[in-house]
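Repro:
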Amino acid sequence: MSRSFTFRPVAPGPLGFAAALCIALGGWGCGGNPAPGPVYVVREGPPPPRREVIGVPPDRGYAFIGGRWERRGGEWLWAPGHWERVPGRYHTWAPGRWAHGRRGWYWIDGHWR
């Protein structure tokens, strides 16, 4: 799924430096989590999440990744959820979420753990 953001990037703080250090060290001692992507901040918070009809998975070994609100062109648009193959037998999906900080609202990506 392609995303088009029109937000202003925020310079990484101490956590961004830590992520860069983890990349430079090849992930050694950093918990194996992927480095965070760019952070985009918006002033207006997202609408409440929509209820989605999940249905039946396409096959064994698939998990439903819930939809989310995305900010495009000054409007909130719903990106519907989708089925994704689980990358390993014991992996679970940690969903993404919108969080509020000093500068406004920002998206934290979901990931497999």
